Amino acid sequence: MPSAAMTQYGGARPLRRAPVRAPAPPVLIEPQRPDDDGIDIKGLIDILRRRWRSVLLPALVLTALAFAYAAMTPKLYSSSTLLLLDPRDQKLLQTEVLPAGAGSDASLVESQVRVVTSDAVLGRVVAKLGLGNVSEFGGASSDPVERAASAVDTLVHRIAVTRADRTYILEIRATARDPKLARDIADAVTLAYLEDQTDAARAATRRANEALTARLEELRSQLREADEKVQAYRAAQGLVGKDGSAVTEQQLAELNQRLVQAQATLATARARYDEVRRAGADATGQALNSQVITALRTQLAQARQKEAELTATYGDRHPQVIQIRDQIVAIEAQIGGEIARIAEAARTDLAIAERDVANLQAELDRLTGRDVKDASALIQLRELQRQADAVREVYESVLARVKETAEQEQLETPSARVLAPAATPTAASFPPRAFIIGVALAFGLGLGAALALLRERLDDRVRSAAQLRREGLEVLAVLPPYDAPKKGRANGFDYAIRLMRAELRDPIDRQRERSALVVGTRAGDGAASVALNLALAAVSSGERVLIIDADPATRALTELVAPTAAIGLYDVLSGRVPLMEALVGDKRSGLRALPMPARKSPTQARPARGTYERLIAQARARFDYVILVGAPLADEPDSRAIAEAADQVALVLRAGRATRTDLSTALRALRVRGEKTCGIVLTMAAAGAGA
What we know:
By secondary structure, this protein is α/β, with parallel strands linked by helices. The protein folds into 4 domains: 39-68 and 431-458, no CATH class; 77-210 and 413-420, Alpha-Beta Plaits; 243-406; 460-683, P-loop containing nucleotide triphosphate hydrolases (Rossmann fold). It is 56% helix and 10% strand. The protein has helices at residues 41-50, 52-72, 106-116, 119-129, 135-138, 144-158, 179-237, 247-279, 285-289, 291-314, 319-408, 433-458, 465-470, 493-505, 527-540, 556-561, 569-574, 579-582, 609-622, 640-645, 660-669, and strands at 77-85, 159-163, 169-176, 416-420, 475-478, 515-520, 545-550, 584-586, 591-594, 625-630, 648-654, 677-683. Helix 1 crosses helix 2 (52-72), helix 8 packs antiparallel against helix 11 and helix 14 packs across helix 15. The longest helix has 90 residues, at 319-408. The model is unreliable at 1-38 (pLDDT under 50).
C-alpha cells in the first residue's frame, strides 16, 4: 500500500488530539432555505475580497472616464462681486416719484436677482465688452445681431446671482474661460445693473414730469376761465369791491368804523363840556394841565409874594407896590381869559362832534338800503370765487411738483453700492477634477460592490461553511488546499483532518459509531482523499482502520492505494472471496483497504443495503473503524444503501464548484433513517471559509 505522501493530500506528521465539540442531530432531510441569506459584515467582507475584480473594474472604468472628462473639458474661471441693496429711503427732495432703496420686503429683494440676469442688463454688458465678437459667447455667426443675441443667451448661463439668507447682499458670479474676462464680466454686470436702476428711476421721473406738465396746461386753462367768470360777473353786477366784496359793503364797513369813532369823540366832548359847566373851566383837567395857565399862576404867586414884601417895606402907597399890584391884575386877567378860552373850546368841540355824528348816521342810513340789493349778487360772486380759488390751489401744487420732478431727474442716484469688486481668479472653478474623480471612484466602488453582491446573490455555488450553517447543516470539517500557505496551525490541512477525526471519533456517544460513509456530489470533490486522510489520522491515533472503495464510477480510492488490484469489493459482497483475503495494506500500520477493481460488465447489479450491513458487521469484528468511499451522487445516486448501513455519513463538497442544486440533490439522495452523525466536509476552501 502506498504511503500517505503518495496521495494528493498529506498528513504523515504527528498531529495532536483535536478539541471535541458536542454532536449535532443527524441530517435526515433537506433543510428549508431561509429567505434571508444572512450575510453579515464579515461575510460581506469575504464576498468583496473574493470578488475584488468585480469591485475594482467598474471603479477603474468610471475613474478613467472621469479623468478623461476632466482632462478634455475646457477650464472655466469664476469671479464674483458683492452688491449691497440699500433698503433705506434716500430722499433728496421732500417728495419723490419712486422710493429709494429696494424696500424691506423679501420678495422685492428677490426680484432684483431676476433683474440682474435680465436681457436689459446683460445686453449692456454684451455691448460694453463686445462679447458678441468673442467666440466663447458670440458663436461663429457672421451676423452681428445674431452674435449679440447668442452672447446674451450664453451669458445668462454664465451669470449666477445668489442672495445670502435674510440679508440684502447679492453675490454676482461670472464664469468664463479667460480669468480676466470673468473678472471684467462680473464688474460689468454690476455696473450695468446700477446704471439700469438709475436710468429706470430717471425714466419714471421723466414720465411723471411729462404727465404733470400736460396736466398743468389743462389746469392753467381752467384757472383762466374761472378768473374770467369772476371778473365778468363782478363787472355785470357792479361788484368791484376789494377782495371780491361789494362797494356798498366796503363803504358800510368804513362808515360804521367812522361813526363809532365820531360817537366816541362826541362822548368825550360832552363829558368835557359837562365838567366845565359843572365845576368851572378853571377846575377842569385841561386847565390844570395847561402849561400856559400853570406858568401864569406861577408868575401870579411870585408877584403876590413880592407885593407882600414891598408892602411890608414901603407901605401901600409906594409906587413899586402900585406897580406890582398892576402886574397882579394883568396876570389874573390873562388867567381868566385862558380859562374862558378853554370853556369856549369845550362848547365848540361838542357842537362839532354832534354835527359829525348826525352826518355819518344819515350817510349810513342811505347806504344800508343799497347793501340789501347787492347781497344776492354777492353770494353768487363768492361761489364763483371759491371755484376759482380751488382751481388755483391745484394749479399751484402741480406747478411746484413739475419743478421738483424736473430737478429730481438730475439728482437720481442708484439704491445699491458695491461692497467688493471682482478679482482675477487664479484657479479654475470648473471642472472640479478632484471632486469628479472622487465621486466617480466612490460611485464605481459602490457599483462594483453592488455588482459583486449581485453576482454573489445569483451565484449558486457553495463557498464557505457559514453558508451551510445558515441553512441548518452540520459542517464536520473545512479543509484548505494541502499546499496552501499556513498562517497558523488552525488553518493547516493536517489540523483540519485531525479536527474531523476528533469530531467523528472522540465524543462518547459517537464511539459506538464505528462505520462512516464519505461521499461527494461530483467527481473531483476529493471524497477519496478525505476518506484516506481521515483513515490515516485515525490510524495515527492507534485505531485499526479499514477503508473500502465503494465507488464503481471513479474508483478514486483504488487509484490511490491499489490501482492494479484484481479482486475487491464486489468479490467480497458476492461471497467469492473472503474479506481478509481481498484487503491490501500494511498489517503493522493498522490501515487496510478494500479496493474496487474495474467493472467487468457495465450492467453489473448494485448491492443492496443488507449486503453492505453484513460487510460492515464483518469489518467491525476485526477493525476499530470502517470508512467507505461512495460514488459521486451526481453519477451514481445509489449511495443511500451504504448510508443506511453506515453509522456516520460525511458529504464532501468542493468549495467554489459545488452548487446549491448539487447539495439539494445529494441531501435528497442521502435521506436516511435513524440517529446518525451526518455532516458536510468542505474541501479546497479558501482561508476564512470556515467562519
